[in-house]
Each structure stands twice: as C-alpha cells, then as structure tokens.
Amino acid sequence: MSVMRLGYIHLRVTDMAEAKNHYANTMGLYEMKAEGNRVWYKGWDEWNHHSVVLEEGGVGVIKYGFKVEYEDDIAVIEKRAQDFGATVERMSAGENPEVGDGIRIHTPSEHVFEVYHHMTEVSTEVGTHNPEAFPRHLVGIGAPCLDHSLLSTDDPALMEKFFIATFDYFTTERVATSLDDDADTIAVWMTNNNIYHQMAVLKGPQAGIHHFAFRLEDWNEVGRAADLMAMDDVPIDIGPTRHGITRGRTVYFFDPSGNRNEVFAGGLLSHRDRPMVTWTADQVGKGIFYHARELNERFTTVFT
Q: What is the pLDDT of residues 187-209, one digit of tens each?
C-alpha cells in the first residue's frame, strides 16, 4: 500500500481576481480550468491536471487530496481509516474534475482528506522527450510543483498516530515539551518516502492550516522569489532564511486572502531507518528560524 504524495490542496479565497493574480502572476502557476467560483492550477513540472484548487468564499483549507500508487490501495486505506475510527465515504469519478473514484476521510483533526488513484495526466511544460532544464518563458517565481503542507489540530499526537495507521507515514522530526518519554507533542514532520516531510502537524486550531509550500531548486531561487514578492507587494512573514528543522531554505508569505504560502528548497532526504530528530520547546525558535533563532508573533498565531 502506498500513498505516493500530496496531490492537491483545495483552498478558500476571499477575492478570486486578487487570488488569480497572486497564484498565476506571482507564483507562476498555470490555470488549467475555471468553473463557477473555482479555479484549478498546476506547476510547470507537474504532470497531473492540478495541484491547487481555489474556491471563492472565505479563507482556509477545504480539503487535501492524496494520490495512491494502485487502485486497490484505496480500499486498504478505507479499512485502515475506519479501523482507526474515522468517518469514511466513497467519492465518484467526476465529483472533483479530472479525478477518479476514491474515498473521503474525515480525520481526527476535522480536516477532509480525499484519496484517489487516477487524475488526468497532462504534459509537464518541458515534456518527457529530451526535455530542457526549465521552460524559457516562466512567469514570476515559476513554482514547479506543490511540496508539502502544515495543518493544525488540538491533538498533534493523535493525528500523528492517524497518519501512521492509515497512510503508513513515519515521523522524521518532532517538537516536544521535553526529551522525556511522556513529553507532550507540539508538532511533527511526517512522510512515507524520501521527501523529508509531505505533511506536518502543529498544535493549533482544529481543521486549520498554517501553510502550504511550493518547491524551488536552491538558495538562489528562494532569494529571487523574495525579490519578486517585494516587487509585487506580497506580505512576507519571514525570510529568506534557513530552517533548523528539515534544514530547508525558506520564505513564508501570505496570499491576498491571508492564507500563508511558503517557497522551500533543499532539506534533508528521509529514510525509514534514519533516527528521528527531537527538538525541545525551548529551542523551537532555532528549529524553525535557524538564523534569527526566535519566532515572530505571526508565525505562532496566524492560522486559516
């Protein structure tokens, strides 16, 4: 059974015109479909139909989609989620445009996870036959793909157990109140492959989202992204800087609705036998913002 990756995030935005300007012109995503109050986007190096869905009417996350390797994996995850005590319902092909049959899980954190195997395949911008390194005419930051997300819940330890039990995830890093075995969990970073974290979980509001991230290649691209954000008057939360946790390079910023975005480059590779890293609460500033070694107020209080 294999959850291959975070396939899409479906978000609310307050003003679609402003959101489209941000995600298309600053982030450089490609508009794939527009219907009613929704727009579907993908990055230039993504081969499935979409990875970001915007819906006008509010802020915050509506649901996440996770793609599995085999169609039979859907039934396995369905049973695992039900055994965990989560509510699961079937979804039919077409309920989400370009997405096949699957299941919809109502998680302990009150988020909605959709699990599917099929999504319409499209070409990456550079194709698959003798491709160039990147498209010549990128717009704005030119984000190639969706990378990860950090969700919030009032019980991070329970959500960690859910990811392990249903998706076969493992924890790469943790923030805890202490190094004691009975310490409370504040946050976890989790994956089931070599991407160091596909999802992270932080103590905070139920059904909340802290941020979602787009992958860039290196420090230079992160710095260039920050310059473009300044040109476009995008509110920057922090950065460019480095994380202690994951060792990734980052800029955090906000879309026009107040949903926090991130561009992320580098970071560790994960392996199931790599020892998990634990950070204590008194060192979380160093863990999140390695250079400044302290958190700003927005980072710990703004969720959508």
A: 999 999 888 899 999 999 999 99
| Active-site residue, selected from the candidate residues 8, 197, 217, 221 | 197
Of 22, 49, 111, 243, the active-site residue reads 243
Q: Is 173 a catalytic residue?
A: no
| 3-class secondary structure per residue, the chain | CCEEEEEEEEEEECCHHHHHHHHHHHCCCEEEEEECCEEEEECCCCCECCCEEEEECCCEEEEEEEEECCCCHHHHHHHHHHHHCCEEEEECCCCCCCECCEEEEECCCCCEEEEECCECECCCCCCCCCCCCCCCCCCCCCCCEEEEEEEEECCHHHHHHHHHHHHCCEEEEEEECCCCCCCCEEEEEEECCCECCCEEEEECCCCEEEEEEEECCCHHHHHHHHHHHHHCCCCEEEEEEECCCCCEEEEEEECCCCCEEEEEEECCECCCCCCCEEEEHHHHHHHHCCCCCCCCHHHHHCCC
- Point out the catalytic residue in the list 22, 49, 50, 211: 211
Residue 243: active-site member = yes
Topology (CATH level 3) of domain 145-301 = 2,3-Dihydroxybiphenyl 1,2-Dioxygenase; domain 1 (3.10.180)
> What are the sequence ranges of the domains in the chain?
3-116, 145-301
Task: Tell me whether the CATH fold assigned to 3-116 matches the one assigned to 145-301.
Answer: yes
The answer to whether residue 197 is catalytic is: yes
Q: Look at the pTM and tell me if it is higher than 0.90.
A: yes
Task: Please say whether the structural domain 3-116 has been given the CATH code 3.10.180.10.
Answer: yes
pLDDT digits (tens, 9 = 90+) for 65-80: 999 999 999 999 999 9
Question: Does the annotation count 271 as an active-site position?
Answer: no
Q: Which of 50, 148, 169, 173 is catalytic?
A: 148
Question: What does the pLDDT look like over 126-143, one tens digit per residue?
Answer: 999 999 999 999 999 999
Is 8 an annotated catalytic residue?
A: no
